Amino acid sequence: MAGDAPDGLTFLGVRHHSPACARLVAATVTALRPAYVLVEGPADLNGRLDELLLDHELPIAVFTAYRDAGRRHASWSPFCAYSPEWVALTAGRAAGAQVRFIDLPAWHPAFAHRANRYADADQRYTEAVRRLCATLAVDNVDALWDHLFEIGSDDGLAERLAAYFDVLRGESAAGEDDTAREAYMARWVRAARARAGGRPVLVVTGGFHRPALVRLVAAGPEDESWPAVPEPEPDAVAGSYLVPYSFKRLDAFDGYQSGMPSPGYYQRVWEDGPQRAAEALTESVAARLRARRQPVSTADLIAARTMAGGLARLRGHAHPGRVDVLDGLVSALVGDALDQPLPWASRGRLAAGTHPAVVEMVAALSGDRVGRLHPDTPLPPLVHDVDAELDRHRVGPADVVELDLTVPADLARSRLLHRLRLLDVPGHRRDSGPRVGADAVLSERWSSGPAPDRLARIIEAGGYGPTVLDAVTAVVEERVVLLGGDVDGLATLLFDTALAGLREHSARALAAIARATGTVTDLGALGRALAVALGLWRHDGLLGSAGAAPLGALIAAAVRRALWLVEGVRAATAPADRGRLAALVAVRDALRYAGPALGLDPEAALAVAGRVAADPAAPPDLRGAALGLRWSLGATADAGRAVRAVAAPGTLGDWLSGLFALAREEVVAGDAALLGVLDDLLAAMDAHDFLVALPALRQAFGWFPPREREAVARHVLALRGADGPARDLLRLDVDPVLVAATRALDARVDAVLAREGLWEGEPA
After folding, report:
1. Helix (H) or strand (E) holding 512
2. What is the maximum alpha-carbon separation in the chain?
3. Which distant-in-sequence residues (6+ apart) come within 8 Å of 269 by Cβ?
4. What is the pLDDT of residues 471-509, one digit of tens each?
5. Which residues contact 497 (CB under 8 A, 6 or more apart)?
6. 3-class SS at 432?
7. What φ, ψ does residue 401 adopt, rounded to 5°?
């Protein structure tokens, strides 16, 4: 309890980003006038508190990045105006106290599994929270916290908080990481008490740590020496910088791990109190819905406020709380059935299918505030290097950049923009340019757009290196390691490094793909890797990889592996899989364009294709694709006879998807024999069978681009002996599926009429 602390020490256990706890911290500093205010936070920042306490516009965060030979880590320590830690720092300094952070640095192994220093320990005391929620009839820890602390009186708040966290901590033991942190923080507290000369010392930490710190400080030896701050290993790279943060990133509904959800709402609680915050929330939701042309009347608002007030009284709240207001708004404004539970009944991201009005309510609570750093804030070297590189290449923040990649200066600008893209620096978006598996494109277009978090992203990328080249090199090296045997991801990285002009790292990604090719089992992923390698081998004269021997070796290995995998696929009823069909397209293109140069064996490929095409255990799409592969490579293919063998409504469209993916040019350029057989098969189907076959048929014909679809339409008109523009067949005013469903319904009605002895057209 609060009275258990050793003499001269006051321990405040808080919940991060809680206005109630922030008010308590401010009041305690005023009452105690302490000699020291000790705060849970990174001790390696104590020499930079003047920088942290500049006149920033909150929210901001301390971003920390760490790299060594075995570990990569990035984390954030965020602060907003109502963060108890921030209030402890600012109020303590204003009161003349010496303020100190007392926790291990954020790069320390104790934080290896956390992206957020202030991530709550809720999962460690789930059972205690569950019982409290059941006893008090609330949904989750956030509603429980509001009920107990945020919307009630501040009288006795310190004692109630101490009792709450004592109960929770009593249900669980700290892990090894927290034990190390608490032992370190206790040493700071003992040193401060010894140095204070009898004056008060205030300790502000997460409530989970408070019981342990009280015990450790009481049991430990007196020592005036400040604990040594751990330093990274000599071969490690570690650094911390301030970054602008945003309410969106602070919100649990957007995946934030710590503290209170709905930061916009709690900012109003901090500034104006819970009653005014509830009123402002209702007004904000109404404004957002009206801005999206959703009707919200004055009567709706009165009903929402009346319901919120009634719920607050029913739940024993002096003022409507966050959940009271939200439940009142839903009851007044949402008349539809909800496909998803209300998001404030749990924690985590919004679920897909959440009602649009509920989404707007959550957004209103979140707020759109974005922090801003004081101009005197030191920035990492990468920020200055990015600006210098953009200036050197004449790329402005609002420019639309049109590039001719055959011009050296434009190619250099393209590489810079791709490097910034790899570093996840927003501001420019590529609209067109070279694509995986496409023919060579020698131009590129980039457009600009608003990026309020651009500075934060650059600062965070600065953890990888001081210059654009250093940082992007480190990013690529990290991704190669993290991707391991993921040939799909490695292929994307290979293409990205080629676009960014990172030849050495393209070679590393290529080597990683080559190592993984012999064991990969995902045909679609292997096909995408093959398409990337083939495109670079054929077209990459600009980047110097056209015809490169390592790429050629990878292509040959990938073709052999893909053909081996194709014969092992067994799923006779599986729908068409575009990924594996694209893999066979890549195999076909490799045989066509690189076969002679790389010594690929077309006869082996034709033999595999023949076996798969005739295998009834193979999926229909692969059987059709195998026949298409043979046809496209010049072998004889009786497609008309083959299509009759798969004429069942449930398999026809999938088989055609495979055939068209591999041999659509042959189908269009042929003598229309296949289209004639197909026309006969479709004409013979009744309405029900046609409706079953139609979705897969539409997918199959989706392989044809518009010009080839028009050629198919001309064949159909010729088969029917009809005149008129072929394009008219491609411009339907009604969805074909709807037409087919209507025909099937008509057929069922006719069958009922015939069964009952009635005739169509006569009155029943």
Report:
1. helix 503-517
2. 107
3. 19, 82, 150, 277
4. 999 999 888 888 888 888 888 898 898 899 888 777 888
5. 476, 503, 505, 506, 509
6. strand
7. -105, 115
Domain match, 332 and 418 both: no
Is position 73 within any domain?
Answer: yes
How many structural domains is the chain composed of?
A: 3
Q: Please tell me whether residues 549 and 487 are part of one structural domain.
A: yes
Q: What is the pLDDT of residue 646?
A: 79
Look at strands 60-67 and 72-79 and give their pairing: antiparallel
- What pLDDT sits at residue 573? 61
339 and 361 together in one domain? yes
Q: Is there a single domain that holds both residue 126 and residue 46?
A: yes
CB 145 within 8 A of CB 321: no
Residue 742, CA distances (Å) to 431, 737, 760 in order: 41, 9, 16
Residue 600 dihedral angles phi and psi, to the nearest 5°? -75, 150
Domain span at residue 301 reads: 263-366
Residue 43 has pLDDT above 90, yes or no: yes
Last residue of a domain, one of 566, 582, 617: 566
- Whether 712 is in a domain gets the answer no
Max mean pLDDT among 142-151, 534-543, 636-645 falls in 142-151
The pair of structure tokens assigned to 384 is: 């200055």
Residues 29, 35, 39, 42, Cα dihedral to 10°: 150
Q: Which of 518, 535, 566 is the last residue of a domain?
A: 566
Q: Is the pLDDT of residue 762 over 60?
A: no
Whether 633 is in a domain gets the answer no
Question: For the segment 239-253, what is each residue's pLDDT rounded down to a tens digit?
Answer: 899 999 999 888 866
Residue 686 banded pLDDT, cuts 50, 70, 90? confident
90, 221: one domain: yes
Span between the terminal Cα atoms of the chain, in Å: 84
User: Which residue type occupies 16?
Assistant: H
Burial class (CB in 10 A: 0-12, 13-18, 19+), 744: middle
Given a contact cutoff of 8 angstroms between Cβ atoms, the answer to whether 486 and 448 are in contact is no
For the chain, percent of residues with pLDDT exceeding 90: 38
Summarize pLDDT for 399-428 with one digit per residue, the tens.
899 999 889 999 999 999 999 999 999 999
The verdict on residue 532 lying in a domain is yes
Report, as an integer, the average pLDDT of 432-452. Answer: 82
- pLDDT single digits (tens) 587-614: 999 999 988 999 999 999 999 999 998 8
- Cα distance between residue 178 and residue 481, in whole Å: 29
Q: Which residues lie below 8 Å from residue 650, measured CB to CB, with a gap of 6+?
A: 573, 692, 693
**Residue 225 phi, psi dihedral angles, 5° rounding:** -75, 130
Identify the three-state secondary structure at position 108.
coil
Per-residue pLDDT at 438 = 59
The answer to whether residues 165 and 206 belong to one domain is yes
For residue 146, the 8-state DSSP code is I
Higher per-residue confidence, 574 vs 391: 391
Q: Are 457 and 424 in contact (CB under 8 A)?
A: yes
336 shares a domain with 395: no
Q: Are residues 422 and 484 in the same domain?
A: yes
Q: How far is CA 99 from each of CA 36, 49, 76, 126, 182, rounded to the nearest angstrom?
A: 6, 9, 20, 33, 18
Dump the DSSP string for 391-402: HHTT--TT--EE
